[in-house]
């Protein structure tokens, strides 16, 4: 190779390196109603794969805290699209374990690089109503991290109890929801109860009856019942479950995941109520956890 050609090649390599460092590749995400995602990659600075069989380029999903486990990494092939971008598909049939996944692009043997978020089309996730099935419900919501990277929150549940409207009274919370991923929802809900489980101790477990109409359910939970167990020290957190009458059936964690909001804790907020406890007045407040599960906090003002 001539000196001029070598210089041109080195200049091009330097340009690609500078472009990668200055502006990382980004991904636009499109969700479908079944729970699948398609990633459209822009800003790719490496030679584009010629087809999905060309594994020089791949989308790499790494689960936080589980990178070295057998199910801690998922690689998806990148392929070209008509508009010159690259695309990778994550169908709902791919069993993605629950957790937070950091999203990278990889080229050849190079170290994978984090992707920046682009535009998300998550309209199909808003008020999503999955069809009848007993297979695990797959939910994936892409989001931008506080450091400006693209990540993905994944849930995989069967059965699943989706929380809906929550109405607060002075001493109670009334919740409506719908049960998914059981063969006969009405039979599953017959005789079922809502169960509040305290994280700090195994007992007592507080229960309240359910009212059911097909797959839909509702219940009213007393804050005072939960406050009876407070010891006057740090706060108790009560996780809410639906427990069927048939002990052979798995219970369902009450959560809100069928929409486009990856982290509900700071968005869906509910005012606290003051109730009487054995050690004086105490505050009761429902909230969504970092996993978007529904819980109730009983304790001193937060």
UniProtKB/TrEMBL annotation:
Superkingdom of source: Bacteria
Span list, region Disordered: 1-23
The protein's name in its UniProt record: Transferase
């Amino acid at each position: 190779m001539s000196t001029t050609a070598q210089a041109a090649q080195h200049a091009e390599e330097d340009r690609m390196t500078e472009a990668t460092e200055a502006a990382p590749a980004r991904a636009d995400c499109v969700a479908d109603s079944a729970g699948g995602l398609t990633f459209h990659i822009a800003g790719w600075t490496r030679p584009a794969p010629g087809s999905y069989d060309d594994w020089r380029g791949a989308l790499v999903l790494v689960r936080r805290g589980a990178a070295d486990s057998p199910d801690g990494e998922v690689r998806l092939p990148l392929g070209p699209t008509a508009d010159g971008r690259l695309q990778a598909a994550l169908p709902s049939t791919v069993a993605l374990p629950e957790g937070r996944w950091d999203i990278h692009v990889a080229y050849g043997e190079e170290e994978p690089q984090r992707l920046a978020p682009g535009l998300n089309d998550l309209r199909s996730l808003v008020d999503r109503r999955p069809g009848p099935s007993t297979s695990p419900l797959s939910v994936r919501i892409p989001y931008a991290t506080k450091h400006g990277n693209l990540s993905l929150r994944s849930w995989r549940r069967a059965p699943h109890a989706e929380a809906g409207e929550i109405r607060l009274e002075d001493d109670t919370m009334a919740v409506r929801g719908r049960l998914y991923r059981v063969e006969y929802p009405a039979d599953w809900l017959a005789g079922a109860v809502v169960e509040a489980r305290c994280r700090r101790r195994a007992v007592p477990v507080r229960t309240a009856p359910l009212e059911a109409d097909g797959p839909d359910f509702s219940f009213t939970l007393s804050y005072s019942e939960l406050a009876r167990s407070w010891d006057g020290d740090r706060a108790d957190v009560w996780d809410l479950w639906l427990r069927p009458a048939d002990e052979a059936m798995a219970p369902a964690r009450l959560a809100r995941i069928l929409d486009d909001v990856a982290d509900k804790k700071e968005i869906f907020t509910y005012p606290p109520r003051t109730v009487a406890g054995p050690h004086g007045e105490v505050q009761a407040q429902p909230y969504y956890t970092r996993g978007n599960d529904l819980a109730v906090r009983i304790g001193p003002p937060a």
